[in-house]
Design brief:
This protein is mainly alpha-helical. The N and C termini lie far apart (about 80 Å). Pfam families: DoxX (PF07681).
C-alpha cells in the first residue's frame, strides 16, 4: 500500500469515527435517538446550564453536531463541517470545564477530543476517499478554512460568553448567610 493510499484511508477512518460519533450525539439532542432526550429535554438541560433560550440552544447544538458530523463522515464541505462541530464541542467543553479534564469526573475530555479532531480534519482536508474529492473540492477551498473558523469562533465566543455572564450574574445574586440561623434566635 502506497503512502498516499494509507493517508487517505487513515483520514477516512478518522472522518467516519469522529463524524459518526458527532452525528449520533447530535441525533440524541434533535430526535431523542440513542437514549437522548430530544429537543424538549435537551432544551431544559441547556437552560439549566445557562444556555438560554434552551430549545434554540439545543437545536443549534444538535444541528452543528448532526450536520457537521454527517458532513465530516462523508468528507463534504469539510472546512465548514469541522469548524461547526468544533464550535459545538467548545460550547460543551465550557459546561464540563468546572469538573476538570477527565470524562470520568464529568470533565471536558470527550468534548475536547471530538472538537480538536473535527478541527484537525477541517484543516487537513478529507483526503481522496471523500465526496469533496469527487466534486473537485468545490466546497473545500483553502480560503474556506479561515472563513469557517472565523465565523465559528465569533459565534461560539458570543454564545459561550453570554452564558458565562449569565452564570456570573446568577452567582452574584446569591448571598451567603453571615450567621448561622441557630445564632440568630
Amino acid at each position: 500500500m502506497r503512502r498516499n493510499d494509507r493517508r487517505d484511508l487513515g483520514l477516512l477512518l478518522l472522518r467516519l469515527g469522529t463524524g459518526g460519533a458527532l452525528a449520533a450525539h447530535g441525533a440524541q439532542k434533535l430526535f431523542g435517538w440513542f437514549g437522548g432526550h430530544g429537543i424538549q429535554g435537551t432544551g431544559q438541560f441547556m437552560e439549566s446550564v445557562g444556555y438560554v433560550p434552551g430549545k434554540a440552544s439545543a437545536t443549534a447544538a444538535g444541528l452543528a453536531e448532526t450536520g457537521g458530523g454527517t458532513l465530516l463522515a462523508l468528507g463534504l464541505a469539510t472546512p465548514a463541517a469541522g469548524a461547526a462541530a468544533a464550535g459545538a464541542m467548545a460550547g460543551a467543553a465550557a459546561v464540563h470545564a468546572p469538573n476538570g479534564f477527565f470524562n470520568q469526573g464529568g470533565g471536558y475530555e470527550y468534548a475536547a477530543t471530538l472538537g480538536l479532531t473535527a478541527a484537525g480534519l477541517a484543516i487537513t482536508g478529507p483526503g481522496r476517499l471523500s465526496v469533496d474529492h469527487l466534486l473537485g473540492h468545490a466546497v473545500n477551498r483553502g480560503w474556506m478554512i479561515p472563513a469557517a473558523f472565523a465565523a465559528t469562533a465569533a459565534g461560539t465566543a458570543v454564545v459561550v460568553g453570554a452564558r458565562a455572564r449569565r452564570l456570573r450574574r446568577a452567582k452574584e445574586g446569591e448571598q451567603e448567610a453571615l450567621f448561622e440561623e441557630e445564632y440568630l434566635e
